[in-house]
From TrEMBL:
Organism encoding this protein: Nelumbo nucifera (Sacred lotus)
Keywords: ANK repeat, Membrane, Signal, Transmembrane, Transmembrane helix
Source taxonomy: Eukaryota, Viridiplantae, Streptophyta, Embryophyta, Tracheophyta
Entries under PANTHER family matching the protein: ANKYRIN REPEAT FAMILY PROTEIN-RELATED, CASKIN
Protein name per UniProt: PGG domain-containing protein
Domain PGG: 551-669
Length: 722
C-alpha cells in the first residue's frame, strides 16, 4: 500500500472513532482533557502508544495506529497550540510536549505567575530568563519541569538551547549542554535550523565551539540545504569559516568512510555537492584564501554543481568585484615596493581585518609607514591564483562533450554580459578554442561583447590572432548579420543614466562605426527580412534616443546662451564705464572725480573686463552654433560635443573673469583698513559660481570634453594579451 493510500485510510478511519467524550484542549483544562483522552485511547486499545516507548523496528500496523493517535491529539488541540506540536512524531512526543506545557505550571511559585502565555511563547518568564542569561531562574524552571530542557518553547519550534544560542548566552548554552544528550542537542526548530545554525547566523564563535565540542556531527546537519560552514560563508563570518571548515571536511570524510558500498556513490555525490556549495559561497563573498585552500584539496569541484545548480567557475565568472582593486594608485605602488606576500590561509587559520598586523609581520620589508591595509587588496592575488588554477583544470576538459560545452558557453557568456574582463582574458589564454563557442541562437562571444557593449572584451577578441570568419559568422532567421546586431539599442542595464542623451547617442554611434570598420564592407549593405540595412535599423532603434539627444542639446545650448548674454551685457556696461574712472577733478565747480588710473589694480580691472567680455561672446557663438546645427549623425560624433564643450569652457572663463573684476574693484575702491572688512563678503561671490559649475554643469562639460578630445577608447587596440 502506498504512503498516500495509508494516509487516506488513516484519515477516514479517524472519523470512525467517536470524539464526543474528549474536550478541546485550550490550556486551562489540561487535566480534564488528559483524563478523557487517556480513557478514550484505553477504550480503543491505543494507550500503549503513549505509555510505552516506540519499538526499534516499528511494524506497519503499529505506525498506522500511532498515526491515528497523533491525528486524534491534534484534532482536539486548540489552534494556538498547533505550532508547538507541528511535525512532531510519534504520538508520545506530542503527549510529552503538552505535559511540559500544561502539566506542571501550577507547581511554580509567585515569581512565575502573571502573563505566562503569549502569541510567541507558552512561557514568557522562562523565555525571558534564557534570553537575558539569568541561569538561576532557568535552573529553577528546569529542575521543577525537567521536560522543558528539550521541549519547544516558541511557536517557531525553538528549544531553550536554540534560544540561548540565538541570543548569544554562552553560559546558558554550557549549562544546558551538561544536562543534554546528543540527540537532544541535534534537535531542529520548525525551520530545520539547529542550535549551531543559530550560533552561526548570529556570529557566535565561542558558542559554536562549545556546541561542536559536544556533538561534532552538528557540522553535517543542513539548514536551507547548507551545512553550517557554508552558512557561515554566506553570512560573511570569516572566523566561523576558519573554525568550521577543517572539522566539516574531517566529518565528511568520516561519514563517507562509514557508508555502505551500495550507498557510497550517493553519499559521495552529496558530499561533493556540499563542498561545491561551500566553494561557491566562499567565492561569492570574496573569501579567496579559504576558497583557494578548498580548491587545492578538491580540484574535481571545478564543474561540480552546488545546491543552486551553479559551479565554482560560474561563481567566479559572475564575481566582478574579485578582480577590482579598491586601493588608490599610490597605495598599490607602496604595496609593490614593500613586496607584500599575499599568502593563502591554512586550514583553521584566520586572516581577517583584526589580524592584519599578523599579516604585516609576514612582509619581506618593514611596514611601519602603513597605517591601514585594505583586506580586499590582500584577497586580490588569491583571486587571480584561484582563477589560474581553475583555468588549468578547465583546459583539460573535453570541449566536445555536450554538457561541458553547454556549461562553459553559459559561463563565458555570463562573464561577458557583466563585463568580467579578467576572467574572459584568462579563459581565452588557457583555452583559445572558447572563442568559437556559440549558443542555441548561433551567437558567439564576439556577438555577446557587441550586444552588451563590452569594449575591452571586444578589443581582446579583436587582438587575438585567430581566424575571424568563423567567429563573426551569424545569420539569424530574420537574415540579420553582425552589423544588424550592433545596430540594435544597448540593453537597459548598459545604459548609463549618469550620462546625457547626447553622450549616450554618441557612444552608440561610435560603437556602430567601430564594428562597421572591422567587418567586410558587403555586410553594411545587406538587408534583413524587413528590407532594412544596418544603418536603417540603427536609425529605427535609436529614434527615441535621437530625439532626446536633440532636445537636450537645444535646452543646454539655450540655457548657455542666456547666461552668456547676461554676462556679456554686464561686462559691456562695465567696459563702457571704464573711461569715466580716469576723469579729472574740477576745483572751480566743486565737482570731485576720483582718478583710478594711477591705482595698482586699475589695469587688472581692464584686463579682466576684456577677458570676460570676449569669452562671453565666444561662448554665445559656440552655443548658437549648437542650437542651429542640423544635428546629423556626424554632428553628434564630432561637431556638437566639441562646440558644446568649448561653449561651456568659454562661459566658465567669462564668469570667472567677471568675479575677478568685481573683487578687484572692491580692492580699488576701498582702501587701507576698509579692505580687510570688505574682502570676506567679496570672496563669498565665488561660492555660487563654483557650486553651480561643480554640481550642475561640470559633469556635462567633462563628458563633452572627453568625448571630443579624450583618448578613443573604442578603437584603441590592445596588443600583447597573450
Amino acid at each position: 500500500m502506498t504512503p498516500l493510500l495509508i494516509f487516506i485510510y488513516s484519515y477516514f478511519s479517524l472519523y470512525m472513532i467517536s470524539t464526543e467524550d474528549v474536550p478541546m484542549l485550550t490550556g486551562d483544562n489540561y487535566k480534564s482533557w488528559k483524563k478523557n483522552m487517556e480513557e478514550y485511547l484505553s477504550e480503543k486499545g491505543l494507550w500503549h502508544h503513549i505509555s510505552e516507548p516506540q519499538p526499534e523496528e516499528a511494524e506497519y500496523g503499529w505506525v498506522e495506529q500511532d498515526l491515528k493517535v497523533l491525528m486524534k491529539i491534534e484534532e482536539t488541540c486548540d489552534r494556538k497550540i498547533h505550532p508547538y506540536i507541528k511535525s512532531l512524531s510519534p504520538a508520545k512526543v506530542i503527549w510529552d510536549q503538552l505535559a511540559v506545557m500544561y502539566g506542571k505550571m501550577d507547581d511554580f511559585g509567585p515569581r512565575w505567575k502573571g502573563k505566562v502565555s503569549t502569541c510567541y511563547t507558552w512561557c514568557l518568564p522562562f523565555f525571558n530568563a534564557i534570553a537575558t542569561g539569568e541561569w538561576s531562574k532557568v535552573e529553577e524552571f528546569v529542575n521543577k519541569n525537567r521536560g522543558t530542557l528539550t521541549a519547544r518553547i516558541t511557536v517557531n519550534g525553538e528549544t531553550p538551547l536554540h534560544i540561548a544560542a540565538k541570543f548569544g548566552k554562552e553560559s546558558i548554552v554550557k549549562e544546558l549542554l551538561l544536562r543534554m544528550d546528543e540527540e537532544s542537542v541535534k534537535k531542529r526548530a520548525l525551520n530545520e535550523a539547529t542550535a549551531l545554525h543559530f550560533a552561526v547566523i548570529q556570529e557566535q564563535l565561542q558558542i559554536a565551539k562549545v556546541l561542536v565540542n559536544k556533538v561534532e556531527a552538528l557540522v553535517l546537519m543542513k539548514f536551507e540545504n547548507m551545512t553550517a560552514v557554508a552558512l557561515a560563508a554566506k553570512c560573511r563570518h570569516k572566523d566561523l569559516v576558519a573554525y568550521l571548515c577543517p572539522i566539516t571536511l574531517k566529518e565528511e570524510d568520516k561519514f563517507k568512510g562509514l557508508a555502505k558500498p551500495k550507498d557510497y556513490e550517493c553519499v559521495s555525490a552529496e558530499i561533493d555537492q556540499n563542498r561545491a556549495t561551500l566553494l561557491t559561497s566562499l567565492i561569492n563573498v570574496n573569501f579567496f584564501d579559504e576558497a583557494l585552500d578548498i580548491f587545492n584539496r578538491f580540484p574535481n569541484l571545478v564543474l561540480t554543481e552546488d545546491i543552486h545548480g551553479k559551479t565554482a567557475v560560474h561563481s567566479l565568472a559572475r564575481n566582478t568585484s574579485a578582480f577590482r582593486r579598491s586601493s588608490w594608485f599610490f597605495q598599490r605602488r607602496i604595496y609593490s615596493c614593500l613586496n607584500l606576500k599575499f599568502f593563502c590561509n591554512g586550514r583553521g587559520r584566520n586572516q581577517d581585518e583584526e589580524n592584519l598586523n599578523q599579516a604585516c609581520e609576514e612582509m619581506e620589508a618593514p611596514t611601519t609607514c602603513l597605517k591601514k591595509i585594505n583586506p580586499e587588496d590582500l584577497q586580490y592575488p588569491n583571486a587571480l591564483r584561484l582563477l589560474d588554477k581553475i583555468c588549468v583544470e578547465i583546459s583539460v576538459i573535453d570541449i566536445n562533450d555536450a554538457q561541458s560545452k553547454a556549461l562553459m558557453t553559459s559561463t563565458i557568456f555570463s562573464a561577458i554580459r557583466i563585463g568580467n574582463v579578467v576572467f574572459v582574458t584568462e579563459m581565452l589564454r588557457y583555452c583559445p578554442q572558447f572563442a568559437y563557442l556559440f549558443d542555441d541562437n548561433d551567437l558567439g562571444i564576439i556577438h555577446q561583447a557587441i550586444i552588451h557593449r563590452r569594449k575591452k572584451i571586444f578589443n581582446l577578441i579583436d587582438s587575438m590572432d585567430l581566424p575571424r570568419q568563423k567567429m563573426v559568422r551569424y545569420r539569424s532567421s530574420e537574415k540579420e548579420n553582425i552589423l544588424h546586431i550592433t545596430a540594435k539599442r544597448a540593453p537597459i542595464d548598459r545604459l548609463n543614466q549618469k550620462h546625457s542623451p547626447a553622450k549616450e547617442l554618441q557612444n552608440e554611434l561610435r560603437w556602430f562605426k567601430l564594428i562597421g570598420n572591422t567587418v567586410p564592407p558587403t555586410l553594411q549593405d545587406s538587408v534583413n527580412n524587413k528590407g532594412q540595412t544596418p544603418a536603417m535599423l540603427f536609425m529605427e532603434e535609436h529614434k527615441e534616443l535621437w530625439n532626446d539627444a536633440k532636445q537636450w542639446l537645444k535646452d543646454t545650448a539655450n540655457s548657455g546662451m542666456v547666461v552668456a548674454a547676461l554676462v556679456a551685457s554686464v561686462m559691456l556696461s562695465t567696459a563702457l564705464s571704464l573711461p569715466s574712472l580716469s576723469g579729472t577733478g574740477k576745483a572751480d565747480t566743486g565737482e570731485i572725480h576720483i582718478k583710478f588710473t594711477n591705482h595698482n589694480h586699475f589695469y587688472n580691472v581692464v584686463i579682466a573686463t576684456m577677458i570676460s567680455l570676449f569669452f562671453a561672446s565666444a561662448s554665445l557663438l559656440s552655443f548658437l552654433s549648437v542650437y542651429i546645427s542640423h544635428q546629423t549623425g556626424d554632428d553628434f560624433l564630432h561637431h556638437l560635443p566639441r562646440m558644446l564643450s568649448m561653449g561651456l569652457l568659454f562661459l566658465y572663463i567669462s564668469v570667472s573673469a567677471m568675479i575677478a573684476t568685481f573683487i578687484t574693484t572692491i580692492f580699488m575702491v576701498f582702501r587701507n583698513g576698509i579692505v580687510k572688512v570688505m574682502l570676506p563678503p567679496a570672496l563669498l561671490a565665488i561660492i555660487p559660481v563654483l557650486a553651480f559649475a561643480a554640481l550642475s554643469q561640470f559633469p556635462v562639460f567633462k563628458d563633452m570634453l572627453f568625448s571630443s578630445y579624450g583618448l578613443n577608447r573604442f578603437t584603441k587596440r590592445r596588443k600583447g594579451y597573450f
